[in-house]
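Hi C.,

You asked whether I'd gotten around to modeling the 298-residue construct. I have! Everything is below, sequence then structure, no commentary in between.
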Amino acid sequence: MERSWHAAWARYQGRSHVDSGVPCQDQVHFLRFPNGTVVGALADGAGSASLSHYGAELLIEAASELAAREFDRIFKATNNLGTIRLEIVGQLQSVLSEAATAGLDVTDSDRLRLDFPPRDTSLRLSCEVRDLASTLLLVAVKDERFVALHLGDGVLGTEVVLPSGRKAGRPLGRPDNGEFANETVFITSRSAAGALRIYRGRLENKARTISGFILMSDGPEASLYQRRTRTLAPACSKLLEACRSLPSDVMQEQLEATLKDVIVPRTHDDCSLVLLAAPHPGLPEPRHVSATNRTQLG
């Protein structure tokens, strides 16, 4: 039976960005498509890229549409998965390249901060593609199947129900760092196609049933991901349980408050989360708030 997934998503400006005046560079996204696909996506703009928050927003929109459109092809891919990786990265890089050439509608505050021309001088500002660098986490679910994309240093986790009935949190995609902890691969990197990880599967098999997904940027990892054991913290299951049990608007408020009051104080980085939770049997259909959350919180 097709599940009606509960979802919550939020982001919050990191303490270092508050001090420097840089806006939150994370973007989060959730959409339901007419073909029945639900997609949750998260992008963490590169701190070294001046306009990465714009690139992250463009990226999650384009990647979500691509995942819904190409879901069946990606899921059924066999020996052509390498070609699909190249196509995905190529299409997403093209979106960013076209936007960089056509120009961005940069806010007045960003123009002032970056010493760009005022709006009355130049309505749209062109840039280099590298200025839009961002990571990508995405989960698409359709007809009891899932496809996930992972690029960069975020964590893509699952909550599973074992045959015993016990729930466990398992990372599907672990952080991809370079030689140093603050290095990673972005969608604009030359190595992006080779670094993009694609996960596929059915929500239920004999060994487990996937009852939830959690996507997190590297900011919340100190609170929600245990690097030494490469496991999800117990708090992840608590967040997913709240997501499936609370009304959508209440959950949104609580998730934003959790980021602000609990997670952000433990890191200097921006923090963002996307939750997808399968409902308990017998629970009413979820009431959802607006499909995206791009307004800076706080």
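If it helps when you're writing up: Confidence is low (pLDDT under 50) at residues 288-298.

Thanks,
B.
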